[in-house]
Design brief:
41% of the residues lie in helices and 18% in strands. With 337 residues, the chain is of the alpha/beta class. It has a seven-stranded parallel β-sheet with strand order 3-2-1-4-5-6-11, with helices on both faces. Strands 7-10 form a two-stranded parallel sheet. A two-stranded parallel sheet has the order 8-13. The protein has eleven helices and 13 strands. The chain binds uridine-5'-diphosphate-4-deoxy-4-fluoro-alpha-D-galactose (UFG). The site of uridine-5'-diphosphate-4-deoxy-4-fluoro-alpha-D-galactose has 21 residues, from helix 7 and strand 8.
Length: 337
């Protein structure tokens, strides 16, 4: 029996692969490498001592997904595959809706054909829209500010309806907050293409001299220092959350949703100052205008994951900053250096 990780060569997929393999699971990675590198597979092997099965496939291609199920005994799917750039989704909404909805539906239909009944989905805190923090799982969803967020919302709805219609199905929706950090070995990490959209990869590229300075998007938010507050979570803690979700899915049917965050909010300037202090490197920055669609404060209530899954983030902000920098230093140009 193996766990299929769609988008398994990506940032969160690769860390989850390591976590699952170290817990004794067999994994099959499926990735079209549209935003990831095949070199990840060798790096996972270095860390775990075992080479994961990796299939180059677009999971919108039903026959390609069927071939994976024919070749491997898949007991559960963790569906990471999808387009994820918020700004790009505003420019290319049709591509985002087509790719993200199609891949989820295709995988679900093939799972049904092959009698695979456990599905863990990479959702996002973005489905909460603009609501006061801390956000808990019973807060209403919707009000997303971009097509990317709406794809997560729509796939959640599809999964809720699918689990309601079929009592043998087991679905876990995981709403990620802001994943950063990297495996402590520095062998796998986040490798954004082009100019990073997200804060931490931008900080590490400024620290390494690859970019001149960080622009802080607004310092007039109603937060303690005026900059945006987010719930940053170490990617290895997030990976553990998937392991717990798979255990839960194996033991229950129906659809459950869990926040994966730390429950702590840190501002952009907290991030810059902690990164500088922990790593002893400067991060020059300027204050710029707000970025369209950004919220002031987003952080999770994490009690449900703790109570039901027995999961809680273990790594603090210093570890996140240290491990992000360790990965950047060891891989200045990402995987393709
Ligand atoms: N920020 C800057 N400068 C930058 C980049 C970011 O000041 O160059 C600020 C943002 O304004 C925000 C914070 O840093 O206050 C975090 O921004 P990110 O882009 O890293 O993350 P977001 O919270 O905007 O978005 C993330 C994911 C989305 C997901 C969302 C859910 O990237 O996929 O969390 O809340 F939808």
């Amino acid at each position: 029996m193996a766990i299929l990780l769609t988008g398994g060569a990506g940032f969160i997929g690769s860390h989850t692969a390591v976590c699952l393999m170290q817990a004794g699971y067999d994994v099959v990675l499926a990735d079209n490498f549209s935003n990831s590198s095949p070199k990840v597979v060798g790096r996972i092997a270095e860390i775990t001592g075992k080479t994961p099965v990796c299939v180059e496939a677009d999971v919108c291609d039903k026959e390609a997904v069927r071939n994976i199920f024919r070749a491997h005994d898949i007991s559960a799917v963790v569906h990471f595959a999808g387009l994820k750039a918020v700004g790009e989704s505003v420019q290319k909404p049709l591509e985002y809706y087509r790719n993200n909805l199609d891949s989820a539906l295709t995988v679900l239909e093939v799972m049904r054909e092959f009698g695979c009944r456990q599905f863990v989905f990479s959702s996002s805190a973005t489905v909460y829209g603009d609501q006061p923090a801390p956000l808990n799982e019973s807060a209403p969803t919707g009000g997303c500010s971009n097509p990317y967020g709406w794809t997560k919302f729509m796939i959640e709805k599809i999964l809720i309806d699918a689990a309601r219609a079929d009592e043998t199905l087991s679905v876990v929706l995981l709403r990620y907050f802001n994943p950063i950090g990297a495996h402590e070995s520095g062998r796998i990490g986040e490798d954004p293409q082009g100019i990073p959209n997200n804060l931490m990869p931008y900080i590490t590229q400024v620290a390494s001299g690859r970019r001149e300075k960080l622009t802080v998007f607004g310092n007039d938010y109603p937060t303690p220092d005026g900059t945006g507050v987010r719930d940053y979570i170490h990617v290895c803690d997030l990976a553990e959350g998937h392991r717990c979700a798979l255990e839960y899915a194996a033991a229950h049917t129906g659809c459950e949703v869990f926040n994966l965050g730390t429950g702590h909010g840190y501002s952009v300037l907290d991030m810059v100052h902690t990164f500088t202090r922990v790593n002893g490197v400067d991060v020059p920055y300027v204050i710029g205008p707000r970025r369209a669609g950004d919220l002031a404060t987003v952080y999770a209530a994490c009690d449900k994951a703790k109570e039901v899954l027995g999961w809680q983030a273990q790594r603090d902000l210093e570890a996140m900053c240290r491990d992000s920098w360790n990965w950047q230093k060891k891989n200045p140009m990402g995987y393709d250096a």
